[in-house]
Amino acid sequence: LSTTGLWLSIARLEGPDIIRETYLEPAVTFEPSDAQPRRQLADFLDERLTEEVARQNSIEYAMARSLHRRAGSDLRDVRLEVQQLSRTTLTRETEHQLRVMREQEAKLLKQCQDDEVR
């Protein structure tokens, strides 16, 4: 079971969570006295940690985090402007500005949510 999980990991045919939960952890509990499944689970988790640390130290990750923070800041600013515009007497011009600001708010909100998923 653990060998199958290890093979799937190397071939990247399944996601890490599925491999760990479906193959490696059950193999450890199936035969507690066997050291091989424990070792394969430990190696698998160590490899995942190494990959995650490398990803978080990458320039791409730093740039993505910076863009996410900037989008969040822009979203707060737009929401504040929408609130201020909503409190004023609405004219055609302010209604148009309000509509544009709400569209911008929706776009920024979607961007922030998409960034959270990644």
Mean pLDDT: 83
Protein structure class = mainly alpha
Radius of gyration: 24 Å
Strands, total number: 0
Basic shape: rod-shaped
Query: Largest beta sheet, briefly?
Result: none
Contiguous helical run count? 5
Strand content: under 5%
Uncertain parts:
none
Secondary structure: helix percent = over 70%
- H/E series, N to C? HHHHH
Question: Termini distance?
Answer: 30 Å
Detailed description of the structure:
The structure is a single chain. The protein has 118 residues and is an all-alpha fold. The chain has helices at 2-11, 16-30, 35-56, 59-87, 92-117. Helix 1 (2-11) runs parallel beside helix 3, helix 2 (16-30) runs antiparallel to helix 3 and helix 4 (59-87) packs antiparallel against helix 5 (92-117). The longest helix has 29 residues, at 59-87. The protein is rod-shaped. The two termini are 30 Å apart. 14% of the residues are buried.
Short description:
With 118 residues, the protein is mainly α. It has helices spanning 2-11, 16-30, 35-56, 59-87, 92-117.
Question: How would you describe this structure in keywords?
Answer:
118 residues, mainly alpha, 0% strand, rod-shaped
